[in-house]
């Protein structure tokens, strides 16, 4: 680093004497010594640390040289603890059995029963924002993550990119001497940058993790995920967890166990930091039948009854205060009593699957802890187990077999789902690879007991309050009294820094650092009744917003409720200036059940003003900025490749959907040079997978096209005649009739002649999936079409030359 000290001397050249020159030279020299001395004393202000200088003295010859091996200084306290952060996904506070819920969570209980628990710990109400805050110790919009990466936009607080001026926990711990590794869901890399060609600056390895194995997007099929190891896309193993089948949660545990074993063997002198974040219990809800069957009949009386039971247990166990009120169901949410009897088996099974999925993930988290114990490291390992990066998700709306319908704002009726499911094989198919099912929003609300709201609601604790347990046998004495200080995921990083005596660096990798927003929670380790150190915290996810200050909480629901699908009436006219606000005194009202807005108008106005102040300070403007690139407003501005034309000289596979041509969303033409053999069969190209996608394929010599609208509607076009043998030019023209998300006319051509036409009634608005790919000549993800499901990947048996894809020019 080049350090330049400049001293301005306002003396004219004619009057500058030699004496003055000498005087100023001495001042400059003196200031330089002081500055350089401060650098050496406070070297931790600048990371990474400089390498240790040689301890040897080189002479002209070996005989005239002195040799002494250099010693790398240690920057951590003696016996610095290992760190394991377990972060579950889309899991509400009323779910785990550890704290009164009905989902069996023995691993969470194990951590709680050897450590301490927190019952007023909070997330941001959404995936990417929570993860960015957790890893940096800064508020989500301050680090560009006002919403998930898939709908990032150009406003600073919503860019989807963690700035290098906010170094992650992994970057700093690595520089101090930790081995660092992350497993599972990442969801903090710009969508258009996740191809195998990078850039890799914003991948996990660019943020301080020396090793990464998992998926970059917001979700993944648990059976057919698109996986990355470090910066390379890799195929998943055929089996996992010692079974004869594959499941992602098991694979993530397997890989973490191997990494821990190798870390102990190769670098036993170094502590480790492991961030283990499975895809569970985020959609799609995928788990083997035997895990779901453990819950058969347990939820038969529905979500309203579930809340009553859990609420009673939460009080009996002391997890919530005795004066807590159970908040009512929203008027827009259906009661269990109003679900038709014919639909209830479907709704029950969806919940049984989610429960089995969540328990299975908790079990595999336990396998990772077992390995740490086996290695003899458990006593000096801090385990931070956070139950959910936000509350349970209501994005399944009324219950669904294809959960991306909600993000694409496509309204459906439950009969469509059940009809499509019956065609696939009925209830037994749920939870398997043929569906991307999610439960009814009523179950998301139930597993958020006793609070209002669900995921995507920053206004209510059902979206933001996450049970957390911390164990550290060597450093924390077990105490079953819940810690009730108001805390947030931004407080995790400062807590670890205090334990390791790491001061917040001022420069990391050449970037001046933003101040931390979090506060350490170490003061709560020994005193469950200690006065809380977090006085203010703002929340905002897509204009569902709130502000906490010293026991008061003001909130505004925002323009939508997550369980209400489709394009909301009047959404384009919504303004945050006309929203209705609520006010709660949390010292008397634990669950936000009693709105004091009418009784305390002065306090409400004070809190609303504070929210705007915090928003300006944290780049949370405009209010509702996270809605910009959604299907509700401007889907055309959602992250995508800047290209409008692609040429593939030969077949490719595994191109991430987020960076691939947006077939099915915009008007385009696909042109392929194909050599057709006898008995031609196979996929020419496929985008996404069985839960939704587009495919062009040859079946028994006939050219076929299928637009799979999230399993509930399949538009198929087939050529009138078989393809001619030999070299042919195939074209697929897709033209939007009106706007994105509307109908689309599709024409198939062979050697310039039209051989098939059809209309897709409803096209796609955002994306088909978060984690599938685009392939030419095969379909490596779950197959788009049932026509070749049993023959997947159904690779084309002819030859494919050049493929060209061009978007239609906007008129």
Automatic annotation (TrEMBL):
CDD domains: PAS_like
Keyword Metal-binding: yes
Record domain Sulfatase N-terminal: where: 81-498
Keywords: Calcium, Hydrolase, Metal-binding
Alphabetized InterPro entries for the sequence: Alkaline_phosphatase_core_sf (IPR017850), Sulfatase (IPR050738), Sulfatase_CS (IPR024607), Sulfatase_N (IPR000917)
Any matching Pfam family: Sulfatase
Protein family membership: Belongs to the sulfatase family.
UniProt-recorded name of the protein: Arylsulfatase
